[in-house]
Write a structure and sequence with these properties.
The protein has 72 residues and is mostly helical. The protein contains four helices and no strands.
């Protein structure tokens, strides 16, 4: 779901970039801003999961144990 962009916000984003910024820099800033806004919308809408649940689902807790014990 895309959020409507206010021109003022777009101008502010461009103005915050350094004079040497590239199109890639601008696209990165837009991507980051959109990801943050979507995350905030999900959080405010109660569409989040506990970190332990995600780590358990993807086995990250077992992976982390292997790193701390020196195993593969």
């Amino acid at each position: 779901m895309s959020t409507i962009v206010r021109k003022e916000d777009a101008y502010r984003l461009v103005d915050q970039l350094p004079a040497s910024a590239t199109w890639d820099d601008l696209m990165h800033e837009i991507y980051v801003r959109e990801a943050i806004e979507r995350g905030l919308e999900d959080s405010n809408g109660g569409r989040t999961r506990d970190v332990r649940e995600i780590r358990g689902k993807y086995g990250l807790s077992e992976w982390r144990k292997g790193i701390s014990s020196g195993g593969d």
